[in-house]
Design a protein that fits this description.
- With 491 residues, this protein is of the alpha/beta class.
- It has three domains: 6-278, 3-Layer(aba) Sandwich (Rossmann fold), CATH 3.40.50.620; 283-428, Isoleucyl-tRNA Synthetase, Domain 1 (Orthogonal Bundle), CATH 1.10.730; 439-490.
- The protein has helices at residues 41-59, 86-94, 98-115, 131-143, 158-162, 175-183, 226-238, 252-267, 298-303, 315-323, 335-354, 368-380, 385-404, 411-428, 439-458, 462-474; strands at 6-9, 14-17, 25-30, 63-68, 147-150, 153-156, 201-206, 222-224, 242-248, 272-278, 281-283, 286-287, 331-332, 477-482, 485-490.
- The two termini are 39 Å apart.
């Protein structure tokens, strides 16, 4: 490639030149949702981030196998080795079968992803459909001396593993600190006394009599640990070592750290070449999450039905809001930020509508080729979508200036500008034009208001004329007066 792609590798904590293991093939695995509730804004960020990565790698000519799992078993309440299964608990509270909960919220998740214009993954495996693979992987880890059975459960032996491997390298945790910290926790919780060391984690849990979700295994009727599912499914579909593993920064430890240990413990190989993590969306400075109860679902954003929302927001405003920050930076929810994102999105869409009507000049005052280079440079610099959007706004300014006659673009420039805007706004960033609801009715109402305003001006009733204009501006409408009359647009 003329301009190589650099991605931040969480393992080295540096930007690295992306070189696939087996080009042009690229294996990408992203941790999917635990489907026991509606998807919220925090969920939108990783899936938009890695949708953009998938889109960009495809644009560069790579053939991407994108695997994103569904966690439908094994994720316990405390993200650890005790507590109730999150899906089983939801099923008990709602008086449903666990798989009814899974189907309900998997369907809801898919609909939210569709609205956000995320392309579906190549493969979407479910943890419950890969119990055999998980059991076989656990057998290998036991055979290699890195796990042990205790009262029907199986635990990964962190101490023994650390004698030959570096547990904690991804997260920067020191094994001695982990052991000391775990030792200070309450160890008499259910299952804790089964462990040789409090830092060990479950690969398989024996099901208690009341536990609904269970499968037979060589050790007990039970269920897999949370971490083993991703190791088993990524290995099955992408091989023992693949290119990129993505997910939220909150999964870095213990989930992804444990994935590395499980893979090395079973086959002796590091599973992933590049680890990528997006940062959190926060609300009042605190991570947004289901477990904290401070989340706003995507459905609530689309309807405006939440006490913290001042209005409803369309899906593309949400996508734009997330893309305007670099994926590795924190992003704090605010209505002002979302309103600004909606306006920014509308500005780009409005400029794209103007483009076909531009009149070509013999000369140009804008370097379109430089715009293209800047956009590629930003994407190649660790997917800097925020910078790409700033360059697209430069293009919007030029398009509007050309429409007003203060900038000149040749026919070649106009066509190139169309290609650049379509490539980056639509193909790579994944924006699309939202369906305009009740356009005819809205247009009729606006024409009536503009006619009333024109009549008021003709009657020298400037107070009424100005009031109509000012009230429309408050509702995010722009009114433009010209010698041919008045026109309107949405900000």
């Amino acid at each position: 490639m003329e301009h190589p792609l650099f991605l931040t590798n969480s393992l080295s904590r540096q930007k690295e030149n992306f070189v696939p293991i087996n080009p042009p093939l690229v294996g990408l695995y992203v941790c999917g949702p635990t489907v026991y509730g509606e998807a919220h804004l925090g969920h939108a960020r990783p899936y938009i981030t890695f949708d953009v990565l998938n889109r960009y790698l495809t644009h560069l000519g790579y053939k991407v196998r994108y695997v994103r799992n569904i966690t439908d078993v094994g994720h316990l309440e405390n993200d650890a080795d005790e507590g109730e299964d999150k899906i089983a608990k939801k099923a008990r509270l709602e008086q449903l079968e666990p798989m009814e909960v899974v189907e309900l919220y998997t369907g809801s998740f898919h609909e939210s992803m569709r609205q956000l214009n995320n392309n579906p993954p190549s493969i979407e495996p479910r943890a419950s459909g890969h119990i055999i693979e998980q059991i076989e992987m656990i057998k290998k880890i036991i055979a290699n001396g890195y796990a042990y059975e205790s009262n029907g459960s199986v635990y990964f032996d962190v101490i023994n593993y650390s004698k030959a491997h570096d547990y904690g390298k991804l997260s920067g945790r020191v094994i001695e600190d982990l052991i000391a910290g775990a030792g200070n926790e309450r160890r008499e919780l259910e299952g804790q006394s089964e462990k040789r060391n409090p830092a060990d984690f479950a690969l398989w849990k024996k099901a208690s009599p009341e536990h609904i979700m269970r499968w037979p295994s060589p050790w007990s009727d039970g269920f897999p640990g949370w971490h083993i599912e991703c190791s088993a499914m990524s290995g099955k579909y992408l091989g023992e070592t693949f290119d990129i593993h993505g997910g939220g920064m909150d999964l870095l430890f213990p989930h992804h750290e444990s994935e590395i240990a499980q893979s090395k413990g079973s086959c002796g190989k590091a599973p992933v070449k590049y680890w990528m993590h997006n940062n959190m969306i926060t609300i009042n400075g605190q991570k947004m999450g289901k477990s904290l109860g401070n989340f706003i679902t995507l459905r609530q954003f689309f309807t405006g039905n939440h006490k913290l929302l001042e209005q409803s927001y369309n899906a593309m405003a949400i996508r734009f809001f997330i893309l305007q920050a670099h994926y590795r930076s924190t992003l704090d929810f605010s209505n002002d930020g979302l309103i600004a994102a909606e306006k920014g999105y509308n500005r780009i869409m409005a400029a794209l509508e103007v483009l076909p009507s531009l009149e070509a000049s013999d000369t140009s005052t804008f370097d379109v080729n430089e715009l293209s280079k800047k956009c590629y440079d930003a994407m190649n610099d660790d997917l800097n979508t925020a910078i790409v959007l700033s360059h697209l706004f430069d293009a919007v300014r030029v398009i509007n200036s050309a429409k007003a006659g203060t900038e000149k673009l040749t026919a070649v420039d106009i066509n190139a500008l169309k290609a650049i805007m379509n490539t980056f706004a639509f193909d790579i960033l994944g924006l699309h034009a939202e369906e305009k609801k009740s356009d005819d009715d809205l247009d009729n109402v606006m024409r009536l208001l503009l006619t009333m305003r024109t009549d008021a001006k003709a009657n020298k009733d400037f107070a009424t004329s100005d009031k109509i204009r000012d009230e429309l501006i408050k509702l995010n409408f722009t009114i433009k007066d010209s010698k041919d009359g008045s026109s309107w647009s949405k900000m």
